[in-house]
Amino acid sequence: MVTVFKRSFATVWALISREMATNYGKSPGGYIWAILEPAAGIALMTALFSIAFRQPQLGISFALFYATGMLPFTMYKDLSGKIAKSISFSEKLMAYPAVTFMDAILARLILNTITQITIFFIVFGFIMATVETRAHLDFQWIALSIAATLNLSVGIGIFNSVAFMKVPVWENMWAILNRPMFMISCIFFLFDSVPEPFKSMLWFNPLVHIVGLMRKGFYPSYDAAYVSLTYLFAPPLILSAFGLMMLRRYHNSVR
């Protein structure tokens, strides 16, 4: 058992090193661009909305308000996309018996989770240090929001890794379906301010719940009573289980 674990750890580490060199080693700046992209988006939105409005819908800082929406969304988009492509990214290496589909998934999950959490700390730390926010951090809700984002990303990523392989057209369909998510995930507004019947429809977007949890962790006065932890965690876990079952079934054809 120990030998198997060591072999798997070595394989995952080798895949992580390969991805770091492939995705972040080719362009100048590498990891810096991964941090600057969401930071630039937050800065742009802060500048635009500061001109149009006197204050955000929550708190006094536009930068913090948009960061609590954009960073969870960015984390979900990056992780789910990377996990969905983990099989195709390591397809040639999976011809070797030592490399399994779980190694490929774990390598991408570990590397990109560390990257996204690092971005969280840098961006939020910079905002809290340079802008008056009057925020009071509750790490319980912040950690829960990050855990829910990871859970959702893994569930959708693993399911899509199977779907992309078995139904190639689904990749294009998924890209089309995901385009409006940036606008309907409560990045720019509060869920509570949405009128019916759109509010009831918007509730089924899990990212709305994740953003609500994140904002609850920065704004003690924000209740976020609409958030359902059962809805956030149960369906993605089912997707993960189904996706892993299908990957195991089709493992030979993938390799």
UniProtKB/TrEMBL annotation:
It is a multi-pass membrane protein. InterPro entries: ABC2_TM, ABC2_TM_bact-type, ABC_2_transport. It is found in: Cell inner membrane; Cell membrane. GO terms for molecular function: ABC-type transporter activity. GO terms for cellular component: ATP-binding cassette (ABC) transporter complex. Keywords: Capsule biogenesis/degradation, Cell membrane, Membrane, Polysaccharide transport, Sugar transport, Transmembrane, Transmembrane helix, Transport. The chain crosses the membrane at residues 31-51, 58-76, 105-129, 141-164, 176-194, 224-247. Its main location: membrane. It comes from the Bacteria. The keyword Flavoprotein does not apply. This is Transport permease protein. It comes from Pacificibacter marinus.
